[in-house]
């Protein structure tokens, strides 16, 4: 347990950066929120998000999640969060009770979570104007300033601010630290939280504490050799490169970029820059914040290597390491590329990783706003993983650490270290709890972007955009994804010709865009942006329809293991309190939607009816996300009515195929493994596949089972006869699967035969 402990968490606040990364053109957007714009603009950016106070969620599941997190943020006792800081900096703890879990006074990386609270309070204030959260943030900063000011009495260097002794950093630098602490991981959180209180609330005290702490980082790292620094980066350090780059942008002081680049981790960056996926075996969430930092460093330096690192990392992670729900990692680690079906365990999909991947996606989108795949991924992960991460039955919106993908899994699984089920008010304080606070206070931040005068609509959520600089209001109304349609009404100073770009997801077909009821003749290619350019009138209403259908999403490594999707939604099976020992076998042709007002579906699996619903709503019951969707079939001969099996239920190479009564033995069940345009028939009992003796091409040659070694005689093509029967043709010989001598006898052997029109040449494929 302790070996994985030293790399357990995650995050940072870089995404918040993007929200204010424009050159301050919206500083006047809302006088109520004294957002402090950055001193420097990002390089290479061709789309920008709106400020946090310009987009508001309206009634929806998203707003419900935000409100539950708001309840907790308003409830939590700041004195308890200050306990470890005050104790470490030799100040009175004012009678506050210490916390448990990852903020217990003896936990090695205590005070990692407080920065998340600062960020979440600041964001919620910026988004909603919640002054209770603003006041908690500024109060906490004032108390942290007192801790920092007492450093000489505590024996620490100027600027230090943490809940554990500075001597942990000495041990870290000397590579002798063995208590499980990940010191710069926690410092990153504190820096990011202070930055957010400065830029979203306008607290100059937060700025001053931040600059002093950053100066301390410069002091400690500036005296290390490059070799010492790289060795130290072997210990998880969060997104130090990201937050220090943000500080450079915010202040305009090049000193912070210099410090940031000391945290460029060569062992991780070098292969990514060379477009090599060497992620297998790495602690997953230790890496993602570094990638975000690379994107930030690109936007400051313009150095292509940084952009390549961030882009390649995103591509590898999303394409080769991500489950259907948009999460990655198993037991917190990356596995081999495309290893998905082999890792459907209880400890899949740590929440932090996805939160950070969303931040990375935002960073990349501003560089490449034509790449619809970015927000196709974002929507998938945001909806299926992040929205479902929070327990809707808990008024404080507590979260799960892992999202299990084992058959019969159930949300509410804590980390290996610290255990438990759901996070709690004061007893857990895991990394995922911290990033969850950030996630659910910024659910609105990626719905809309802008590129000059063009409005980009990426997500379909009930919301209101106040584009203050142009005097335009956009009101989005929808029940998506229950409905496939959303409407966007533009009001205010909309006149003139400008464009609205609408994401047309890759999963749709036949998407339409209408204005005031009139269908527009514009391209709506799936996986692209539809561009609607017109001369607008206040009140114009755009209706976007994105037809949804059931699509099976197979695991990269096993075409028979698949998740069910409907539009952007992963559908899971509700198994109540039942346990499942293996993936249920799904009859994919049986999936039916049973309601037009909800995403209720049914299907047949393991021969029984199971209810399907959106995975983000799969709470309080056991579920399965993945299915054995290849299923098994029985092959019934049309001539005899008998089924194909293996002689004496042999499991050996060379066991002969024959026909037998449908007696239910396991050797009668076959998995159809998709293979090009054909299939391999894998016997469910023996695991061997159906082939032809010696790869013969002769009429009458023996059909048998053999190890699945990839020879061409193992592939068969189904020829649909239009009456519910099939001819099954061997791809190597071109002959048909048949019964010797057209026999109808029990025990007659299977052979390959010419297509001579006899009934034994045809089979019914009966799904089990
Ligand atoms: Zn986490």
From TrEMBL:
Residues 627-706, 714-766 form the Ricin B lectin domain. Residues 454-548 form the Non-reducing end beta-L-arabinofuranosidase-like GH127 middle domain. Residues 1-34 form the signal peptide. This is Beta-L-arabinofuranosidase domain-containing protein. It comes from Streptomyces tibetensis. Keywords: Signal. Residues 54-443 form the Non-reducing end beta-L-arabinofuranosidase-like GH127 catalytic domain. The keyword Nucleotide-binding does not apply.
